[in-house]
Structures are given as C-alpha cells and as structure tokens.
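User: Could you go from structure to sequence for me? I need the amino acid at each position, not a summary. Structure tokens:
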C-alpha cells in the first residue's frame, strides 16, 4: 500500500501505477458523491471520469498543507456543477414570496429510519434544480449566496428550490413510511 504522498508524487510524474492507486483509493467515495448530483448512473459515471481527468491534470496544483481528499472532492463537486450547467435546459424558478414556510410539517418523519438506497432514490427523484440546490446546501454546506453564484440563479430562487426540495423529500419519505407500515 502506498502513502498518500507517494501516490500524489507519482501522479505528478504521470506514473500510471500511482494513478491507478489514487483511483482505487478514492473512486467509490467520489462515485457516491457524483450519484447525489447525477440524474442516473450513466451521468454519474461521466462526472466521475471527468473529475478524475481534472484531478490528474491539476494534481501538481495541490498544496500539501491542505486535505487531499477535500481537494479532490471539491474538484468532483465543481465538475458535477459544470456538468449540470452545461446540460441545463431550464431553471425551476419560483418567487420566494409564494412560499409559505408553514407548509412543511414537523411530524415524526425524522424519527423514521430509511435505508441509504431509499434516501438516495428520493433525492434522485427531485427535479435537477431542486436536487442541485439540496445537495449543495444540505450535504455540502454551501450558503444560498454561494449557490446562487455557482448555479447562476437568484438567492431567492436558491431558497425557493431548497424549500420545495425539502417539501418533496418529506412527502416521499412519508409515502415510504406508510408503505412500510402497511
């Protein structure tokens, strides 16, 4: 097994063995990340491949004083966002004033247990805009201002899409809970 530094140094020298080691070490984590942003597995495969190409071509820019895993995750997230923007047909824009915050029910939905597959399926079922905003805000921890800049949408649209995404997720999880209880 190679150390992270050996892998990075080898990749900088275009050593195929080290590139393979890097791929094998991080591919599954990065693929899971891609699945959160992609519509389907084929799109996630494309994102992962593009992400690794960028990682290999930019690896000499990595600063050893930072987290390597964080650096490669950031590249793959940016690749997913770029992929999304290149394939974007429409934005799902809604006026933030139309949203009534009390629409979301605060029930025992959060107490139920769901499998990773169920949660991923629910997230995948969201419209592209909702899914992107949800992932960036909830999972990656971006702020609405950052999301609006990344996706080229208004801050109000980001907030609106997050609200709608949460509402849809809640409704679909309630359906799953009902199915489990029957």
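Assistant: Here is the amino acid at each position, in order:
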């Amino acid at each position: 097994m190679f150390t992270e530094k050996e892998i990075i140094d080898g990749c900088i020298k275009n050593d195929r063995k080290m590139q393979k080691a890097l791929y094998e070490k991080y591919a599954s984590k990065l693929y899971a990340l891609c699945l959160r942003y992609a519509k389907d597995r084929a799109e996630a495969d494309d994102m992962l491949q593009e992400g690794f190409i960028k990682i290999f071509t930019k690896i000499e820019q990595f600063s050893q004083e930072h987290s390597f895993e964080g650096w490669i995750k950031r590249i793959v997230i940016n690749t997913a966002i770029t992929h999304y923007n290149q394939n974007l047909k429409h934005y799902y824009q809604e006026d933030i004033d139309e949203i009534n915050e009390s629409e979301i029910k605060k029930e025992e939905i959060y107490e139920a247990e769901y499998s990773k597959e169920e949660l991923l399926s629910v997230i995948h079922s969201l419209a592209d805009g909702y899914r992107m905003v949800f992932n960036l805000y909830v999972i990656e921890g971006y702020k609405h201002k950052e999301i609006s800049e990344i996706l080229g949408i208004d801050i109000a649209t980001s907030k609106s899409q997050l609200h709608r995404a949460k509402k849809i997720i809640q409704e679909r999880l309630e359906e799953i809970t009902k199915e489990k209880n029957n």
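One structural detail worth keeping in mind: The longest helix spans residues 155-181.
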